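Worked example

This section walks through a single chain of length 132. The input is the sequence exactly as stored; nothing has been trimmed or padded.
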Amino acid sequence: MSKKSLAVAVALAASVLAQAQLVLNTPSESHQCQPTTITWEGGEGVSALHLGFKPTAARRSDLTFHFNPPRRFQRDNKVIESFGTLGSNVFIWNTNVAAGSVIKLVLIDAIEEFVESAPFTVLPGSNDCTLI
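Given that input, the structure is written out below as tokens.
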């Protein structure tokens, strides 16, 4: 292998390693009718965020999603909201579901990589918003 070919191979390998894995952080707290901060790192230009939930009586382990590229998002549970074209790694969600609901987030980037949050339960909050 020539020095030029080796340099190109090393540069390509470095660029692949530089792409950080997509990581979605599960919110530490979420309260009814109050803003919930959702954050993530890595990925290639996040293109969609989906919020799904099971009603309040559901078990956390029952919340499942199935993702089949390209962008065909099939659910066993109700998707309450979908947000596209997210410009940064922070999204503020107005938590418009009832306290006790179990929520799971799915984040999809521009190259169809996706990650899910761990399920989390919406805690009691105010009653000054319209609930789904």
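What to look for: The radius of gyration is 18 Å.
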